[in-house]
Amino acid sequence: MNNIRSLLKKGFVYALANAITKVVPLAIVPILTAILTQSEYGQLTFVGTVISFGFALFSLNLYAGLLWTMNKGKDYKTSSVSTVLSYYIFASIVLFCGSVVIYFMLGGPEYIFGISRSLLLLILLIIFTQSIANLAMNTLRYSFKSKQYLIVTTLRVTIQLLTFYILVVVYRLGITGYFLSMLASLAFTFLAAALLQKSFYSRLSFDAKLFKTIFTYSLPLIPAGYALWGLNSADVFIIKALLDNSQLAIYSVGYKFGMTVSMLVWAFQLAFVPALFAIYKQGRDEAFKFYRRSYRLILIGAFGFAYLISIFSPEAIHLLFSEKYWRAISIVPLVAFSYAFYALYTIFSTSILLKAKNKYSLLALTVSLSLNIILNMALIPMYGILSAAISTLAAYVVLALLEWWLAKKTMDVGYDLLRMLKVSSLMGIFIFLFLVYGQIAWIWWLAKLLSIVVLVLLFWQLGILEQDEKEWLLTLYRKTTGLILNKQ
């Protein structure tokens, strides 16, 4: 249990960091929807998706290769970080020079997909800054400095909120002001994280041989990263093309609420991946035991959190948004459970990463992305934005099942998916009843609370937890309630 306790401690810190980065931007969505028109908010969503696509193209997903080389020994740590940073700087110079030439020499339309050319240059700057900021933050993570990670994250969000208030709320700069605040926070993130790890950034050097090692390890993950981006974002482009920005705005509100499950998933992944790499060095049996316990932990956490978000989203959306956004309620549970299945994918994919069989993940992602695009193209014209959320859920279920099958072929640590499917099916029935027949009234609040008790008992009785884990949770519960009673 010691490894799990350590994972929980670090995971809790990362959960706080991710909660800050996800909940605070979610909290400003009502402000944005009040200041911007529905069409403008839809366009902001589209520009944000373009940035995420550019980041996937530019970064080359080198962070996995960085982790791989940093675990080879102390001699590789500084040189690995310096090599990746040198690449990003060189690539950005080439990218910006080419972009400036195109901007001033070739002319062309002032707007591309509704994005001005000046905003496109800002997007390029954000993509570069996000790449080096992620590099610095991943260096903190791989060095197991979770507290420093939390501090930098908190300061980053503070900077973004401050600049957002000045540029968007006070000066009404709209979409441009929003992305300028993002740029300011990313630049601060890199500087702060780099100062905490000065030894990694004391000098710039590029080791071609080491870069080849990092790139070779990451190579199958580069198209996999593009496929994962497509899985998360293809629906945005299809909705914009087949419907309009107003429909995209409604979909975006529901999607942002549903994807708050990801803050738990990414918090777990931030702590789990480096921990598993380190434990695997100690022995295969200990790593497998740690793996199975971690699987059960994320299973309960992700699906439980998705359920809570789903059943209470009607009250939240009615409270925070005007009536024209209430259609987003039906989107939330579909997206929430999509990210719960994504949680399963992440833990299955770690065993593939450990064995350097990264092409397997590429296969699973490619199949799921293809399914997502086909379903979106076929269903959105007939059924609108709800079908986009259904397509997303179907694609993530297939992704999790495929990754589970491939992980068993690579390193079978023993998974039991049947119990998870039973519990998730029951959750789906409860959510359907609450959303179709429920109302915003105290009697339905009571019914939702009772359903949580029922699901907790099911998790306990279905044998998802092992006996020593149950005893540990009971001990933790007794200690917690004892402290509360003593204080009273």
Mean pLDDT, as a whole number?
Answer: 81
Unreliable parts: none
Tell me the radius of gyration. 23 Å
Helix run count:
18
Query: How would you spell out the order of helices and strands?
Result: HHHHEEHHHHHHHHHHHHHH
Structure summary:
With 488 residues, the chain is mostly helical.
Report on this model:
The chain has 18 helices and two strands. It has helices spanning 2-35, 38-59, 63-70, 74-106, 117-142, 146-170, 174-196, 208-218, 221-242, 245-258, 261-280, 284-320, 331-354, 358-383, 385-411, 417-437, 442-461, 467-487, and strands spanning 111-112, 115-116. It is an all-alpha fold and 488 residues long. The relative contact order is 0.11. It has a domain at 31-219.
SSE layout:
Blueprint: H1 2-35, H2 38-59, H3 63-70, H4 74-106, E1 111-112, E2 115-116, H5 117-142, H6 146-170, H7 174-196, H8 208-218, H9 221-242, H10 245-258, H11 261-280, H12 284-320, H13 331-354, H14 358-383, H15 385-411, H16 417-437, H17 442-461, H18 467-487
Antiparallel strand pairs: 1-2
Helix pairs in contact: 1-6, 1-11, 2-5, 2-9, 2-10, 3-8, 4-5, 4-8, 5-7, 6-7, 9-14, 9-15, 10-13, 11-12, 11-13, 12-13, 12-16, 12-17, 13-15, 14-15, 16-17
